[in-house]
TrEMBL record:
<dbReference type="GO" id="GO:0098796">
    <property type="term" value="C:membrane protein complex"/>
</dbReference>
<protein>
    <submittedName>
        <fullName>ABC transporter ATP-binding protein</fullName>
    </submittedName>
</protein>
<feature type="domain" description="ABC transporter">
    <location>
        <begin position="3"/>
        <end position="232"/>
    </location>
</feature>
<dbReference type="InterPro" id="IPR003593">
    <property type="entry name" value="AAA+_ATPase"/>
</dbReference>
<dbReference type="Pfam" id="PF00005">
    <property type="entry name" value="ABC_tran"/>
</dbReference>
<dbReference type="InterPro" id="IPR017871">
    <property type="entry name" value="ABC_transporter-like_CS"/>
</dbReference>
<dbReference type="InterPro" id="IPR017911">
    <property type="entry name" value="MacB-like_ATP-bd"/>
</dbReference>
<dbReference type="GO" id="GO:0022857">
    <property type="term" value="F:transmembrane transporter activity"/>
</dbReference>
<keyword id="KW-0547">Nucleotide-binding</keyword>
<dbReference type="GO" id="GO:0016887">
    <property type="term" value="F:ATP hydrolysis activity"/>
</dbReference>
<dbReference type="InterPro" id="IPR027417">
    <property type="entry name" value="P-loop_NTPase"/>
</dbReference>
<keyword id="KW-0067">ATP-binding</keyword>
<keyword id="KW-0813">Transport</keyword>
<dbReference type="GO" id="GO:0005524">
    <property type="term" value="F:ATP binding"/>
</dbReference>
<dbReference type="InterPro" id="IPR003439">
    <property type="entry name" value="ABC_transporter-like_ATP-bd"/>
</dbReference>
<comment type="similarity">
    <text>Belongs to the ABC transporter superfamily.</text>
</comment>
Length: 232
């Protein structure tokens, strides 16, 4: 099993007010699957992603990723877990503006014990010959390709994507989703995408609907479309 989440809860407190961000959330993914988590703003999508990624601690419950018991990790162990197991792709690509494409990816490669070859990854994400370019010289879609390369170069087991197409037009979005699908297939990376865009669920093996911090529905998709055929 690639990912197992068992009855996790997360609350935030402000004065006398308590906000339940996650309520007894349980889900699972097989290794190599693509899952999409859908839900409106405030439904708990980012909180769930951060918990699985070892960024936030949950109040209780269990999270297991390829043998790592994430919910019980110390701060130091969480750093090792993120370095060895997790790749992140965000809506804002957070590239370092004064570093080239190659150097932005190299930053991630340098914290891995067995990274992929940087130039091979640059080729894989469709940026051949652009290793010396700076982010300002790239389109939004190209910058997101660098972000994906930076996540992939460390050979993660789980790729967590937070609205990866949120700032892109529909054509570029499909290109980026196709790239995520390619990376998922080429490297057998379990891939979890959170989004408010229901169209993206057409490419997923598993569709998870989140509402008010709780799992509303889980659907195994019987009609998976390649990203280029998604009806936007």
């Amino acid at each position: 099993m690639g990912l197992t989440v068992q009855k996790i809860n997360k609350t935030y407190r402000s004065g006398e007010t308590t906000f339940h961000a996650l309520k007894d959330v349980t889900l699972e993914m097989e290794t190599g699957e693509i899952a999409v988590i859908l839900g409106p703003s405030g439904s708990g999508k980012s909180t769930l992603l951060n918990a699985i990624g070892g960024i936030d601690q949950v109040d209780n419950g269990d999270i297991s990723v390829e043998g790592w018991n994430v919910a019980s990790l110390s701060d130091k162990e969480s750093v090792n877990y993120r370095r060895e197991m997790i790749g992140f792709v965000f809506q804002m690509n957070n590239l370092i503006p004064n570093l080239t494409v190659y150097e932005n990816i190299e930053v991630a490669a340098n914290i891995s014990t067995s990274p992929l070859k940087i130039n091979d990854v640059i080729d894989d994400v469709g940026l051949s010959g652009m290793g010396d370019c700076f982010p300002r010289e790239l389109s939004g879609g190209q910058q997101q390709r660098v972000s994906i390369a930076r996540a992939i170069v460390r050979k993660p087991k789980l790729l967590l994507c937070d609205e990866p197409t949120g700032s892109l037009d529909s054509v570029t979005s499909k290109d980026i989703l196709s790239l995520l699908k390619k990376m998922n297939s080429n490297y057998n990376i379990t891939t979890l995408i959170i989004t408010h865009n229901e169209a993206i669920s057409q490419m997923a093996d598993r569709i998870i609907q989140l509402k008010d911090g709780m799992i509303d529905t889980v659907t195994l998709n019987e009609n998976i479309y390649p990203p280029e055929r998604i009806e936007w």
